[in-house]
Each structure stands twice: as C-alpha cells, then as structure tokens.
Design a protein that fits this description.
The protein has helices at residues 38-52, 72-89, 98-106, 141-148, 160-167, 181-193, 212-227; strands spanning 2-7, 12-21, 24-34, 62-66, 93-96, 111-119, 122-129, 132-140, 154-157, 173-175. It is α/β, with parallel strands linked by helices and 228 residues long. Helix 5 (160-167) links the parallel strand 9 and strand 10.
Length: 228
C-alpha cells in the first residue's frame, strides 16, 4: 500500500512517500519544503518525488494530512492539495492533529498534555489519555503553568520556549522531537488500518484559534450590528 503524507502546518513542512504492509512501513523518501514556499513548491515536489521512484499519482492508495494547528496559510495550501488528489484519485484520507502526533511520539499510556507554542503568550494544548483524544484547547502561559503543576498528567513538548518556561518553574516536561511527515505517514497508516479515515468533504484544518482576520473583523461586525 503506497501512502503519501503532507505536512504544511509549521514554518518548515515536508512530504513523505512510504510503502506500508502488515506492521511495517518503508519510507521511500522524505522531502523538506521551506515555509513561505508551500504554494509554489508543494505540488511540484510531490510530482518530483513520485517520478524519482518510477511512480505516478495514480499509484497512491491513501493520503495522510497533518491538519494543524499551525500556519493558517500553510494549512490551507496543504489541505487543498490533499483534497485535490483524494478527489481525483478516489482514495481515502487520514487526518492527524500535530498535537496528536506529539502525544503518540511520547509513547505513554497515561494522561498527557501535548503543547505547541501558539505565539502571543498562548499555547495550543491537546489532552490525551493513552494517545486517545480527550480535548484540544488554547491556553495562556499562566494557565499552562497551572496545568503543569497537576500531578496526574505529563506535559509533552518539542519547542525550547515551552520547555524552558515549564522547567524554569520546576515543572517536568517530556521532551520529544517535533513529529515530521515521516512520523506522520507511519502513524497515519495505523489509523488507516483501523478504518479511521475521513473524506474530502469532511477534511478541515484544525486551527484551534481563530485567524487574525476573524479576530480583528469582529469589532467591525459588532458595530455594524449595533447600527442596524
């Protein structure tokens, strides 16, 4: 079974091509794509990677999409490519949250909070139990410190800013590498085998926080409502 994963959630992105059978995935190739070039480089890189291995898009059996949270523009580009390929090829999609991938990479069976820096002194947080989703939410740095003080959960993070913030307050952190597209394709294959797929119409970005356009337009909309 041939799978392609696409991750455009961060400042750097990538794709991975893998053949998976049974419990094993062989990564053919992982290609990095620089942030800010997703719209120009993503589709050509997919084509180049397939051609390099004597393959074409029609050979793909499934797609794995990292749905966020992360860059609004990057996620739109990546998910548009996934939707276009899936619709044209009539193949399934596995959607994975980046927070979910962090939780999976920690390989823990207890309650964890996976954390990503959201900027503006805020964090994207995902609460998981044995890697199963409990909730995903946005919290402030202060709220994260309170969560970290709880004795019945573990904090999972990959970014130095988050790790330093927590360790500076004496809070233990499980440090993991940021999951890349190669990790995503392996995790996605497991979900594919379990039948946890989505279709084109239901695939959506996992923003967690509203975009700047939505945030800054709200006062204008409220003012318009008051005038009317």
């Amino acid at each position: 079974m041939l799978l392609l994963s696409i991750d455009t959630s961060g400042k750097q992105g990538g794709i991975s091509l893998a053949r998976c059978e049974g419990e094993h995935c062989e990564i053919f190739e992982t290609s990095a794509i620089a942030g800010g070039t997703f719209s120009a480089q993503l589709v050509p890189q997919i084509s180049k990677t397939l051609s390099k291995h004597g393959l074409k898009a029609a050979d793909l059996n499934a797609l794995v999409a990292v749905s966020g949270p992360g860059s609004f523009t990057g996620l739109r580009v990546g998910l548009a490519a996934v939707k276009g390929l899936a619709e044209a090829l009539h193949i399934p999609i596995v959607s994975l949250s980046l927070l979910e991938l962090l939780a999976i990479s920690a390989q823990r069976e207890d309650r964890v909070i996976a954390v990503l820096d959201a900027g503006r002194n805020e964090c994207y947080c995902g609460e998981y139990y044995a890697a199963a989703l409990v909730r995903e939410f946005l919290c402030s740095g202060e709220e994260l410190l309170k969560l970290g003080s709880s004795e019945d959960l573990a904090i999972i993070a990959s970014e130095e800013g988050i790790i330093s913030l927590l360790q500076g307050q004496g809070i233990s952190v499980t440090r993991v590498p940021r999951p890349d597209s190669a990790f995503a394709v392996k995790a996605g294959y497991k979900k594919l085998v379990a039948g946890e797929t989505t279709d084109v119409e239901k695939l959506d970005a996992n923003y967690i926080r509203r975009s700047d356009a939505e945030i800054f337009s709200k006062p204008k909309l409220d003012a318009q409502k008051r005038r009317s």
